[in-house]
Amino acid sequence: MRGLLNILTKDVLLILRDRIGLALLFIMPISLVVIMTLLQDSTFKAFTNESIEIVIVDNDKDIVGQGIINVLDSSDVFKIIRINNQGDTITSEQARKLVYDGVYKMVLIIPEKTTRTIRRLISKEIKVQMPSLKSTKINNRKYNSEIEIYFDPIMKESFKMAIKSSVREIIARLQTQLVFKSYTKTIKKITGRKNDNLFPQDVVTVSEKPVGKFVDKLPTSTQHNVPAWTVFAIFFIVIPLSVQVIAEKNNGTLFRIKTTPTPYYLLMVSKIIIFTTIAVVQSVILVGIGVYVLPLLDLPTLFISNFYQIIDIIVFTLFIGLAATGYSVLIGTVAKNQHQAAIFGSLSVVILAAIGGIWVPIYIMNDFMLALSNISPLNWSISGYYDIFLRNQNVLSLYPEIIKLTLFFVVSLIISAIYEKRKIV
Amino acid sequence: MTEIINIKNVNKVYKGNNTPALNNFSLAINEGVTGILGPNGAGKTTLIHIITGLIKDFKGELKCFDYKLPQKINKLKPLIGIVPQEIALYEELTAVENLKFFGSLYKIDKKIISQNIENYLTELGLYNRRNDKIKSYSGGMKRRINIICGMLHEPNLLLLDEPTVGVDVQSKKVILDFLKTLSKKGTNIIYTSHLMEDVQFLCDTVSIIDNGKLIESGKIDDLISKYDNCNNLEDVFVHLTGKALRD
């Protein structure tokens, strides 16, 4: 125990005095989380269920205007903006300028008397279809009302089409309701029978069913980037750790240590403890950035539901730390010099990150890349984090990922030990 | 003189190499200061690696302080100290931090280690720089710390591999005087070097090895007088190993 404590003290001192290594371990991931979340936020909003801001100017102030607002508001897809920064209702002119200036991506202007126009059209149709009714003569006026939608030019055509279709569907439904009400009222007049005036419920419904892991709930930019760059940062310990392993091998300190009564494995145990602890510290800092700093930049908050979720994050991070440490020891053992370890270590982590869904989330990968992502330990890691952050799962339910990460750690150490033994003999 | 190391018919062949590093090698080393000499690739480092337990896969018999190797290496480890040819120190740590760390790897009282650190730093003229990082030290200063690291636990046998390589005259003198004093106090020393005058100054006996075999062994004065036209150890060495380059 004393031997381990002494080695731990030495390793802590070495890490604290390696300023470049510390910057690599802490400053780089913090910068990456902030920059990448800022860069990817709008893209994520387009892909995920994150609310899209839409300015609605309701000049109708009746059933249709209010109906459109209610339906869009209840969809969770849109965040309705109707008031400007001064607290005044946004006018049509102001709304057009807002989208023109790029402040908002979409504006929907419902013209005056839209509901009234629809009602008059329905009334005219009823009169045409039921001429026996006592009524004034049928006029020949044409009824028309145009809802205007303005999009930021950067919006995708498919997205614009989807929005326009949604608005048309809402109006069609409202129009049908108004028709139904008018006919019900007319029939009541003719028959004198009371009617409960209920609009029939939809017989045929359409609902989306999950076919894959991510369809049920997609991450926000923060929910992706915080765990993604935490995993990347944890695996980036490959540089300081492998370089340290090689330095000890090449400068004779390892030789000296091996000739002492202190068992060699304690040297590795110390590194595993230190770098796994660093992994936990990295994860706590980056989660803190997601919870407290990113919202200040108008980015989505990383939501932590309770204290136990923090425990789940820490425990799962320990296993990621083990996998990263094992991999770093392997690189440090196989590489011939520090230069080789730094280059191969960083390149391999970048490639494993790309495959594993760190740079680009795996749910937008094609089938081949999706299958390939399963070989990356960074994928197992981010997959576990997704389960914690998105699905509130506890660490016990992450056993498939934990088993894979632990096996990766064990296999890496075994290969390192075999390689080291063969080299000496 | 008591025998401290007995090597009988040791063979060591590295994988992928047909030429044995040690070829039926036998040698008895007694108490005192023994120089192991040999050109590059002669087998000196292999011999040291076997004595220190780093190489366990060899044929033949080797006993050190009556401990059979490699089986009893853990019993032997506390009794030996190593000073490798490389500056085996952590550059980012201070001299005291390095010494405390390496000293702590031997399971002995912390107070003894601290006392030895203070004494050796003073004797080797480094006490005032004890809290400076190794990276700020000169080559000679690093060599001196490198030596102290190997002897903090007061070993019975100190193995030094080229301990004065690349140091200035002053540092070399301090190191050699220090080792001489240490040997007089009873520490056994095995010293490998290419610097014949150092060996001649420090060692009682020398063993010259080449191509994995012992080619000569004995007291320095006896060896010089044994061969014609040899006035010093270097003459003997060249006489026995030849003038051909060993790259």
Give structural attributes.
heterodimer, A: 425 residues, mainly alpha, abc type-2 transporter like fold, 2 domains, 65% helix, B: Rossmann fold
* N to C succession of SSEs of chain A: HHEHEHEHEHHHHHHHHHH
Rg calculated over all Cα atoms of chain A: 31 Å
Helical run tally of chain B? 9
Label the CATH architecture of chain B: 3-Layer(aba) Sandwich
| Strand residue content of chain B | 15-25%
Structural class of chain B: alpha/beta
SSE topology:
The complex is a heterodimer of chains A (425) and B (247).
Chain A: H1 2-16, H2 19-47, E1 52-58, H3 63-74, E2 78-81, H4 92-100, E3 106-110, H5 114-129, E4 148-151, H6 157-191, H7 221-235, H8 238-250, H9 253-258, H10 264-293, H11 307-334, H12 338-356, H13 367-373, H14 377-391, H15 399-424
Parallel strand pairs in A: 1-2, 1-3
Antiparallel strand pairs in A: 3-4
Helix pairs in contact in A: 1-10, 2-7, 2-10, 3-6, 5-6, 7-10, 7-14, 8-11, 8-12, 10-11, 11-12, 11-14, 11-15, 12-13, 12-14, 14-15
Chain B: E1 3-12, E2 22-30, E3 33-37, H1 44-51, E4 59-64, E5 67-68, H2 73-76, E6 80-83, H3 95-104, H4 110-123, H5 139-149, E7 157-161, H6 169-184, E8 188-192, H7 196-202, E9 205-210, E10 213-219, H8 220-226, H9 233-241
Helix pairs in contact in B: 3-4
Task: Summarize, please.
Chain A is mainly alpha-helical.
Characterization of this structure:
Chain A is mostly helical and 425 residues long. Chain A is built from 15 helices and four strands. Chain A folds into two domains: 250 residues, no CATH class; 142 residues, abc type-2 transporter like fold. A four-stranded mixed β-sheet of chain A has the order 2-1-3-4, sandwiched between helices. Chain A is elongated, with a radius of gyration of 31 Å. By secondary structure, chain B is α/β, with parallel strands linked by helices. Helix content of chain B is 35%, strand content 24%. Chain B contains nine helices and ten strands. Chain B has a six-stranded mixed β-sheet, with helices on both faces. In chain B, helix 3 crosses helix 4. The longest helix of chain B is centred in the last third of the chain and has 16 residues. The relative contact order of chain B is 0.17. The chains are: A mainly alpha (425), B alpha/beta (247).
